[in-house]
Amino acid sequence: MATVGRIIVLLWADILALYAMYIMMAYLTDVWKLSFTRAAAIVNVFWGVVGILPLLLQFIVDTVMGNYWMLLISSFAYSAGLGFLTMSTPPVLAKAMGTCTFGVCGHITSWGPFMAEQLNEGGEIDEGTFWRFFYSILAVIIITIVAVIALPYIKPWSIRFGIPAICTLVATLLFFTGSCSYNYFLPQGSPLTTFVRVFVASTSKFLYASPKDVNKLYENPTFELDLVPHTRSLRCLDKAAIIVPSKTLEEQQKNRWRLCTVTEVEETKTIIRMIPVWLTFIFCGVVSSIGFTYFIEQLDHLNPKVGRLKVPPIVLLWFYDQAKT
Questions:
Q1: Alpha helix (H) ranges present in the chain?
Q2: What whole-number distance in Å separates Cα of residue 307 and Cα of residue 70?
Q3: 298-312 core/surface letters (b: 16 or more CB in 10 A; e: else)
Q4: Rounded to the nearest 5 degrees, what angle is found at the Cα of 165, between the Cα atoms of 26 and 39?
């Protein structure tokens, strides 16, 4: 399958680009002469958005454009963002960081699913496809090692960002040349749509009282998914499953934004109950942010020599990245 190589080439460019972005802290403090606090704020905002934005992009992929278009648009944005960084001028830094953020998040969202769509074409992977995939992954590993060793020895920051920008652009164009041979799948809808539907339906029936008998709430037993039993918490959302007496059930079933099943309501309740747990991960984010700020600044000022061997600081970044996985 020739399409596999064109998709994996995006991963090659990603590796170079990400390791260039990892040293953004040193770039802001050494080249722009920003204080540690301001530079850390910029870097933390960048990586914070990278962690959150894929949720929104996944919703767009599932409901509007599909994985191919998200991957293509984000790849061009990635190339443009790295190109702006090579200019090293203040007016374009915000544009560069914004487009790079969209590029990184687009690849996080769609690269894996799009690759899976191509490999699942016939249900089985032939021997030729397997070996092409194997050699492509091997090439990715080799490029990672070369990038880790070579990038620290490049002094001009414009070239440090320029090489990943050129590689990303070339990878994007190669990916685009295979557009006629990819497998395309239409958006199948997002689970987040159900979450929003429940809130819209419950709000539209705000004046209706929830029935005391939960069996009077709407449920569709013909759903392929397993039914979720009703719970007594967050009963305000139960109004989304109220069957309005002024209209027939058939009429209400046609408008999915006004009538939801008990199962959909309970799934929404489950998401809401998980929010306090998610909030506790803010503290984990505070700790992990040290890896992109204080850790980078320490690397930039340490003695890189181990005996006669000079260890590039970015090698420690590679070990840090591998330790996380």
A1: 2-22, 24-30, 36-60, 66-87, 90-119, 127-150, 157-177, 191-204, 249-254, 262-288, 294-301, 313-324
A2: 48
A3: ebeeeeeeeeeeeeb
A4: 20
- pLDDT tens-digit series, residues 218-233: 887 765 567 888 888 8
Predicted local distance difference test score (pLDDT) of residue 201: 92
CA atoms of 234 and 242, how far apart (whole Å): 15
Sign of CA dihedral 311, 317, 323, 325: negative
User: Domain boundaries in the chain?
Assistant: 2-187+300-324, 191-286
* DSSP reduced 3-state for 309: strand
CA angle at 160 for the pair 38 and 146, rounded to the nearest 5°: 120
CATH architecture designation of domain 2-187+300-324: Up-down Bundle (1.20)
The pLDDT value given to residue 302 = 76
Contact in structure between 167 and 13 (CB atoms under 8 Å): yes
Residue 294 Cα to chain centre, angstroms: 24
pLDDT band at 61 (very low <50, low <70, confident <90, very high): very high
CA 247/CA 33 separation, integer angstroms: 67
Q: What is the pTM of this model?
A: 0.80
Least confident of 77-91, 101-115, 167-181: 77-91
Residue range 307-323: mean pLDDT, rounded: 73
